[in-house]
Each structure stands twice: as structure tokens, then as C-alpha cells.
């Protein structure tokens, strides 16, 4: 976009210099000229004007100012060897050709694909060359979440489908982790059924550790001598065997000791 604007400005400046060069040639007495010759004269005129502007800027900065005055331009003309007094008769010549004022080029605006609403104009305290406000749609809060379903039938269907999914997932989990029965003798993995095994005391499964093996579960080896020394067949646990039971619900009751006062 900026490159196109620069090229348009350069073309407009080039056309103005071309028109000025052609008018000077006509005033001098030329009736026609080749395009290449006119382009060469345009380059010479552009170089002359550029040098005058550069010298004027240098004289302006040399005196400690930031804006160029007419005296700086006169000094630049004198520095280049141009007679300043001859400019008056040249301006007041009778056969001068007045060039028309160049028309303002229309500002190219980028077409928008979607225009939502009307744009808000800039306030009075903001200059016009500033960027305009975006579309009003940019300030509108647009919800991105989906509205919940409030229909009774849809809610019941969704609950029923979720219930079926949960039951199916639970059945598959129990079939993979527990004992199953198969309808087909050839393939036991086809349509497995959960085995129906009634349990007399189901709460003991949660209390008894089945996935761990402890050394205390093994029967201690007792020699004949130790067995014969025990009076009247006393089968009490030897040592601290009762304290080695892992399940706290199966341990023997311990009475608290009475402290002497």
C-alpha cells in the first residue's frame, strides 16, 4: 500500500515537471520535440530544483533555524550562479503559459469483504489524518459457547444415552477384570458374560488383602522338641505373632495398661 502511494506521488511530480518543461519549450519557440529530449530536460530541471532545495536547507541549518526562508533560497541561487534579478522579468513575461492546477488523485481505499454496522466518526480533538475507528462489530461481545438445550425430550434422550454408555462401560470393565462366562465354547472372548457367584459375606472382600502376600500368612515351622515342651498342648501364638496381623479388623483386642498412681 505504501509503495503504491509513493509511486503515485512520484508520477504526479514527474507529470508536473514534464508539463512545465513542455511549456518552457513552447515559449522559447519550439513547435515539436522528441520524447527522449524532453525527458532529458525534465531530468535537468529536477536536478536543478533538488540542488536549490538542498542548498537552501543547508543555509537554513547553518543559521540555526528549522524553516527555510526566502533569503536562504536567494543565497542558494547566488551560490549556483543564477542571477536573482533576472527572475522578475521572467515572471512578468507576456507569453507565459499558465498551467492548470493538478487535480487531486482520489484516495484508494481497500474494499472490505464484510462491513458490519456504520463506522463511528473521529471526535473533534483527533486529527483527520489519524486511523479511523474499526467496525462497530469489533466492540460487540460475541459468545462462543453453545447455548444449553432446554427441551424436555432432548434432555431425556441425552440422559438415557449417557446411562447406556455408563452401563456398557461398567459391564466391559467388570468383564475384563473379573470372572466371566462365555456362550461359545470355541471363542471365550466373544460375548463374555459376568459370572454370577453369590457371596455370603461380601464386605470381607474389601477388608481382606488379596493382592499382597505376607510372610506372616505362612505357617511357622515348629520342631518336635518345641512342640513337646509346650504344656498341655497350648497353641497360643509365640512371641509377637498376634501383632503381625496386617488387617486392623482382625487383630486381637488389647486392653490398656493401668498406671499406678
Helical content band: 40-55%
The parts where pLDDT drops under 50 for at least 5 residues are 230-235
How far apart are the first and last residues' alpha carbons, in Å?
101 Å
The CATH class of the domain at 9-91 is identified as Mainly Alpha
Strand order of the largest sheet: 1-2
User: Which band does the percent of strand residues land in?
Assistant: under 5%
Which topology of the domain at 9-91 does CATH recognise?
A: Histone, subunit A
Whole-number mean pLDDT: 77
Largest sheet: 2 strands, antiparallel
Task: State the oligomer.
Answer: single chain
CATH architecture of the domain at 9-91: Orthogonal Bundle
Briefly, what is this?
With 261 residues, this protein is an all-alpha fold. The chain contains 7 helices and 2 strands.
Would you kindly provide a written description of the structure presented here, covering whatever features stand out?
InterPro entries: BTP, Histone-fold, TAF8, TFIID_su8_C. Belongs to the TAF8 family. This is Transcription initiation factor TFIID subunit 8. It is found in: Nucleus. Residues 218-261 are annotated as: Disordered. With 261 residues, the chain is mainly α. The protein has a domain at 9-91: Histone, subunit A, CATH 1.10.20.10. Helix content is 41%, strand content 2%. The protein has 7 helices and 2 strands; from the N terminus they run H-H-H-H-H-E-E-H-H. It has helices at residues 2-28, 35-62, 70-80, 87-91, 152-177, 204-207, 224-229, and strands at 180-182, 192-194. A two-stranded antiparallel ribbon has the order 1-2. Helix 1 (2-28) crosses helix 2 and helix 2 packs across helix 3. The longest helix has 28 residues, at 35-62. It is elongated, with a radius of gyration of 53 Å. It starts with a helix and ends in a 32-residue tail after the last helix.
